Automatic annotation (TrEMBL):
Pfam families, A to Z: Proton_antipo_M
Domain NADH:quinone oxidoreductase/Mrp antiporter transmembrane span(s) in chain numbering: 1-172
Purpose of the protein: Core subunit of the mitochondrial membrane respiratory chain NADH dehydrogenase (Complex I) that is believed to belong to the minimal assembly required for catalysis. Complex I functions in the transfer of electrons from NADH to the respiratory chain. The immediate electron acceptor for the enzyme is believed to be ubiquinone.
Gene Ontology terms, MF aspect: NADH dehydrogenase (ubiquinone) activity; NADH dehydrogenase activity; ubiquinone binding
Topology in membrane: Multi-pass membrane protein
An annotated GO BP: electron transport coupled proton transport
Coiled coil segments of this chain: none
Annotated protein name in UniProt: NADH-ubiquinone oxidoreductase chain 4
UniProt keywords, alphabetically: Electron transport, Membrane, Mitochondrion, NAD, Respiratory chain, Translocase, Transmembrane, Transmembrane helix, Transport, Ubiquinone
EC number of the protein: 7.1.1.2
Length: 228
C-alpha cells in the first residue's frame, strides 16, 4: 500500500501527458470510476471486521482521489496527487505497523475481539490517535494540503464533484474514528489480561513515520515544487 500504489500513481503521471489533451471517451469513464471508487471503498471500510482489510480498503479510497487528480492534468492536480501519495504512503505504512503490533500480542485482527487496548498500551493508543487523525486529513497535516489541492482541482473541472469528494471525506473521517474506537476504547477482553509490553523499536518505527508528516507541512515546497 505504501509503495506499490505509489508506483501506479507514478505510472499515471508519466503516461497521462502522452495522452494530453485527453479524448473525452477515455477521460470520462476513468474519472467516473475513480470518483465512484472513492465512495464505494470508503463505504466498504465501514463494514469491515478485519483490521488489516479496513486499512487496505482505505488506501484504495485515497488512491481514487489521486487518480482523478492526475487525469485532469493541471498543475494543481498533479501537485495535490504528489503530496497525497507521499503523505498517504507514510500514513498507511504507520497504520499497518500499528495493526501488526496489535496482532503480535492478541493474535487476531477481528475488531470485535480486540477492544480496550488503551488500558493496556496507553502510549500506543496515542500513536493510534495521531495516525488516525492524519489518515482523516486533520490540520495541520500534509494530507490536508494534498486533499485541498485535489478537491479544488476537481471542483474547477466539474462543480458537482464537490458532492462526491465531500461525502468521501466525511466517510473517511467516520471509518477512521470507527477504527480508533473499536481498537482502543471499551472494556478489554478477559483473554487479553497478560499482554507483552510494547518495545522501543515499535515506538521508533512510528516516530519515523509521523515525524516527516509533521515536518513536511512546515516546508511543503519540498514535495510540491515539481509541478508548480
Amino acid at each position: 500500500a505504501a509503495i506499490l500504489l505509489k508506483l501506479g500513481g507514478y505510472g499515471l503521471i508519466r503516461i497521462s501527458p502522452m495522452l494530453n489533451p485527453h479524448p473525452p471517451n477515455l477521460m470520462f469513464p476513468i474519472m467516473i470510476l475513480a470518483l465512484w471508487g472513492i465512495l464505494m471503498t470508503s463505504s466498504i471500510c465501514l463494514r469491515q471486521t478485519d483490521l488489516k482489510a479496513l486499512i487496505a480498503y482505505s488506501s484504495v479510497s485515497h488512491m481514487g482521489l489521486v487518480t482523478a487528480a492526475i487525469i485532469v492534468q493541471t498543475p494543481w492536480g498533479l501537485t495535490g496527487a504528489m503530496i497525497l501519495m507521499i503523505a498517504h504512503g507514510l500514513t498507511s505504512s504507520a497504520l499497518f505497523a500499528l495493526a501488526n503490533t496489535n496482532y503480535e500480542r492478541t493474535h487476531t485482527r477481528t475488531l470485535l475481539l480486540v477492544r480496550g487496548l488503551q488500558l493496556a498500551f496507553p502510549l500506543m493508543s496515542t500513536w493510534w490517535l495521531l495516525t488516525n487523525l492524519t489518515n482523516m486529513a486533520m490540520p495541520p497535516t500534509i494530507n490536508l494540503l494534498g486533499e485541498l489541492f485535489i478537491i479544488t482541482t476537481l471542483f474547477n473541472w466539474s462543480t458537482p464533484t464537490i458532492i462526491i469528494t465531500g461525502i468521501g471525506t466525511l466517510i473517511t473521517a467516520t471509518y477512521s474514528l470507527y477504527m480508533f474506537l473499536m481498537t482502543q476504547r471499551g472494556s478489554i477482553s478477559t483473554q487479553f489480561r497478560l499482554l507483552a509490553p510494547t518495545h522501543t523499536r515499535e515506538h521508533l518505527t512510528l516516530t519515523l513515520h509521523l515525524l516527516p508528516l509533521g515536518l513536511l507541512i512546515m516546508k511543503p515546497a519540498i514535495i510540491s515544487g515539481l509541478f508548480t
